[in-house]
Design a protein that fits this description.
This protein is mainly alpha-helical and 441 residues long. The protein contains 21 helices and no strands. It has a single domain, classed as Proton glutamate symport protein (Orthogonal Bundle).
Length: 441
């Protein structure tokens, strides 16, 4: 590794910024003069807000272009319509199962249920005022009776108005899904025009978002320093440890139980065999924290070791690397509810059943829409938090644990892709891992 931090890979730069944030927030600023310390905290808050504003700026165009680009191919692939339907069904059910596991675990363990003073410190000195009156009005009096309101928000009367409000993105997501599906129903010439436009728009937005994410180390420093400064380190790390354990347990349950059941009863293969044969893929996904970077090895391993045909692997695995994000969706759900629990501990907000189900839906859809970029979960969480009346700036609470959990959830993402490929191959009449069957063909 070069000694020049500017040339380091992004995750190492973020790790360095976190270390510096801890040093400044816990050691240097408390011992500095009040004038310097207060001025530096205000500067950090400015930097953090600037980074979050830039991130918010690209949310709507990125979500729209990414979801439309991903969904339109499902409607357009006439030759693999049946396989496309199976693939979409698997991605939806496996993602839903993952998010529900996350929902259950975060409600059972309740890592954000702490003393009000600790919660206020973790959320920042502005915890009492960071929820604007508009956001407070949105969540005041909310309960499970508002379940129907979720469906009303899926179809806003004015899609342009909904797109200008980060708290009303549910309608934008629904519109994008429907728009993408019906692009696939167009005549070929019109469909090609639409596909070229939306794919190029997606590429532009990915490049722009990647440019903004390059400033994440600076933004993270600005977000984390005030949190460290206002919180006792022992309380901070103790609470984050429970959050960390909650995410890992939820990922482990989905990885070892949910996906194993799919292998056993849908793919009809020995789960232990698949876990063993996919070890190189898991290790690569863990080390790179990138589904896309792991994709070539994933395809090769599934074809060579699991004996899945090129027809199935070439369709399901590239699509899965973009669309199937079980671990990411689970993580988004746990993060949002963890932050909500912290606010509940300060006596401000308690999310009802309707809001929690909205989090589940948004975690599923946003994990599809932003999965192709580094730090994808950061963008997705920035979409979900305003939708349930929480400030985006609260993301800074979880940055200390994000890198390791990113590696873990990427491994789950990629492994779920391989399970889907094997399961779909089995339903298409293939017999994965059956050496005798493939030797006779």
């Amino acid at each position: 590794m070069t000694t020049n931090p500017i040339k380091w890979r992004l995750h190492w730069q973020i790790l360095l910024s976190l270390i510096l944030a801890v040093l400044f927030g816990a050691l240097l600023l408390p011992n500095a003069g009040e004038g310097f310390g207060g001025g530096f905290i205000r500067f950090c808050q400015f930097i953090g807000t600037l980074f979050m504003n830039a991130l918010k700026m690209v949310i709507v165009p990125l979500i729209v272009a990414s979801i439309i680009s991903g969904v339109m191919h499902l409607g357009a692939e006439k030759g693999v319509g049946r396989m496309g339907l199976k693939t979409f069904l698997y991605y939806t059910l496996s993602g839903t199962a993952a998010v529900i596991i996350g929902l259950i675990m975060v409600n059972l363990i309740q890592p954000g249920k702490v003393d009000a003073e600790i919660a206020a410190g973790m959320l920042g000195s502005g915890a009492e005022t960071s929820l604007s009156q508009g956001l407070m009005d949105k969540v005041e009096g909310r309960s499970s009776s508002d379940l129907f309101d979720i469906f009303l928000r899926m179809f806003p009367p004015n899609i342009i108005d909904a797109a200008t409000n980060n708290g009303q993105l549910l309608g934008v997501i629904t519109f994008s899904i429907l728009f993408g599906i019906f692009i696939g129903k167009l005549p070929e010439s019109q469909r090609a025009t639409q596909q070229a436009f939306w794919e190029s728009a997606q590429n532009v937005m990915l490049k722009l978002t990647d440019f903004i994410i390059r400033f994440a180390p600076i933004g993270v420093f600005g977000l984390v320093v005030p949190v460290i400064f206002d919180t006792r380190l022992g309380d901070l790390f103790g609470t984050l440890a429970w959050f960390f354990i909650t995410v890992l347990l939820a990922l482990a349950i989905h990885f070892a139980i949910n996906l194993a059941l799919v292998l056993k009863f849908v793919a009809k293969v020995n789960p232990l065999t698949h876990y063993r044969e996919m070890a190189p893929v898991l290790l690569t996904a863990f080390s790179t924290a990138s589904s896309s970077a792991t994709l070539p090895l994933t395809i090769e391993t599934v074809e060579d070791r699991a004996k899945v045909s090129k027809k199935v692997s070439s369709f399901t695995l590239p699509l899965g690397a973009t669309v199937n994000m079980d671990g990411t969706a689970l993580y988004e759900c746990v993060v949002v509810l963890f932050i909500a629990q912290l606010y509940a501990s300060t006596g401000q907000i308690a999310l009802g059943l309707g809001d929690q189900l909205l989090v589940v839906f948004l975690a599923l859809t946003t994990s599809i829409g932003v999965a192709g970029i580094p730090a994808a979960s950061l963008v997705a969480i920035a979409v979900i938090l305003p939708a349930v009346g929480l400030p985006v700036e609260a993301i800074g609470v979880v940055w200390l644990t994000d890198r390791v959990l990113d590696m873990c959830r990427t491994s789950v993402n990629v492994f779920s892709d391989t399970v889907g490929a094997v399961a779909i191959a089995s339903t298409e009449g293939e017999r994965p891992y059956d050496e005798d069957y493939h030797a006779s063909r």
